[in-house]
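Work Package 4 report. The design task specified in the project plan requires that, given a folded chain encoded as C-alpha cells, an amino acid be chosen for each position. We show below one input record used in the internal validation round.
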C-alpha cells in the first residue's frame, strides 16, 4: 500500500503527488499517507463526482478530478501546473501517459495496477510519450506487494495509530452474501467501490 510510495517512488516531503484510481482501497491510503508526510500537493483521479468530493472533502486531497470529464492530461495539467514529482499508478493507459507528460525532472512512479486494461477486448495502446523518460530522467517501478513483506511490521506499527486516531480514513463498500462474490468482483472492475470492496459472509456460514 503506502510502503511502495516511500521505497519505490522515493517520496519525500515537498513532492507533488498524483494518484490514479485514488478512491480505491490502495489509492485512498497512498494519497492520505503522502499528505500526512508533507506532500506539497496530492492530486487524485476517480470515476464519479461523489468519489471526487470524498477525496477532497474527507481525505484531504489538494484536488481531484473525474477522468470522464475530459482528457486526463489536460485535467492533470490544470491541477498541477508546475508538474508532478511522484505518480502512484493503479490505472495505466491514458493516466500513465498523462503522468509521464506531467513529470518534472527525476520524477518517480510506482506502478501498482493497470485496471483500465483489465477488461480490454483489444490490446490497449501503450503510452505514446515514453521518450520523455530519457530527457527528464524518470524512474518507473512496477511492484507486487508480496515482494515487500519485510516492511509489514513497520507498516502496522506506523499506520495502526493513524487509523485508530482517525487521521487516516479507511472506507469499505460491503456486499452481503457469498452468492454476491462474482457480481461484486465484476462491479469492482467497473469502479463500483469506494475504498475497499468487501463481501460479507452470512453469519451462519
Amino acid at each position: 500500500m503506502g510502503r511502495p510510495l516511500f521505497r519505490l517512488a522515493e517520496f519525500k516531503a515537498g513532492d507533488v503527488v498524483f494518484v490514479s484510481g485514488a478512491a480505491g482501497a490502495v489509492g485512498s491510503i497512498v494519497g492520505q499517507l503522502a499528505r500526512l508526510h508533507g506532500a506539497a500537493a496530492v492530486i487524485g483521479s476517480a470515476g464519479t463526482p461523489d468519489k471526487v468530493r470524498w477525496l477532497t472533502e474527507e481525505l484531504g486531497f489538494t484536488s481531484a478530478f473525474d477522468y470522464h470529464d475530459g482528457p486526463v492530461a489536460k485535467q492533470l495539467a490544470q491541477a498541477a501546473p508546475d508538474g508532478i514529482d511522484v505518480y502512484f499508478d493503479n490505472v495505466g493507459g491514458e493516466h500513465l501517459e498523462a503522468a509521464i507528460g506531467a513529470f518534472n525532472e527525476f520524477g518517480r512512479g510506482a506502478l501498482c495496477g493497470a485496471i483500465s486494461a483489465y477488461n480490454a477486448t483489444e490490446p490497449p495502446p501503450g503510452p505514446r510519450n515514453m521518450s520523455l523518460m530519457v530527457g527528464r530522467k524518470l524512474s518507473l517501478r512496477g511492484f507486487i506487494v508480496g515482494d515487500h513483506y519485510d516492511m509489514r511490521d513497520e507498516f502496522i506499527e506506523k499506520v495502526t495509530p493513524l487509523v485508530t486516531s482517525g487521521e487516516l480514513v479507511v472506507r469499505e463498500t460491503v456486499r452481503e452474501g457469498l452468492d454476491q462474490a462474482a457480481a461484486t468482483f465484476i462491479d469492482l472492475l467497473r469502479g463500483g467501490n469506494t475504498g475497499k470492496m468487501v463481501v460479507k459472509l452470512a453469519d451462519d456460514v
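The two ends are 30 Å apart (CA to CA). Validation will be extended to a larger panel in the next phase.
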